Amino acid sequence: MFFFFSKILTIFIFPLPFCILLGVILSLTIKGKRKIVYLTPFMLLWLASSFPVSQFLARSLESEFPPIEIETLDSADVIVVLGGMINPMSYHETRVELLSSAERLTDTIRIYNLKKSNKILFTGGSGILFHDEVNEADYAKKFLIQMGVREEDIILEKQSRNTKENASLSKPILEKIGAKKIILITSAFHMKRSKEIFDKLGLEVKFFPTDYRALKTHLNWDTAIPSVGSLETTTICLKEWIGIIAYRVFN
Description:
Layout (H helix, E strand, L loop, with lengths): L1 H7 L1 H4 L1 H14 L5 H15 L2 H12 L15 E5 L20 H11 L6 E4 L12 H11 L7 E4 L5 H14 L4 E7 H11 L5 E7 L10 H4 L3 H23 L1
Parallel strand pairs: 1-2, 1-4, 2-3, 4-5
Helix pairs in contact: 3-4, 5-9, 5-11, 9-11
């Protein structure tokens, strides 16, 4: 019984569903056409933080990139891993704090340990506007060394701020070391955009998706309630589609 009521009470305790519910109730008390104006943002937020919407968007990006067994990978000259899994703004600067896309790094280490390549190129500077003195690459190097990767096997690209720059700034580094064949690692939701960009480098690229956001779609009470997790997935996927469209329009 306690478990049942604890689930029901999440609507009234958790900030996101509580604020949405309160906003909807208050909007319904307004008379006239203004009711729709006030109600619309709360309904949009409800949709964005709903499990079905977030999962539809996740599958729209990930469906064409199913998981790959590492053992089936052919050897390559370099493993190229795209940044986006480390929090360079952590309060505790001596620690490497991984974000939800940590599989980009952990799968890189697995591929390296299976000797699919003896070099790792980490590409990622600072994606924070007006704060470019801190970069992800240095933290990534520290983490990789802690996990047993030899320092001489790590190559860093520290200037890139987005996926397009990941590719353009990595290309001269790859040319300098004579790399012709690479394994590219990034999140599955990010792979669609990454593939379009890296396909133009003129290299033999094996794309290795990781960090899947698509989940089994069993509808239940938990998936019916607006959640921060679903809102995060929706936000990430919308950002990806905007990036894909912008790249296609301006390149």
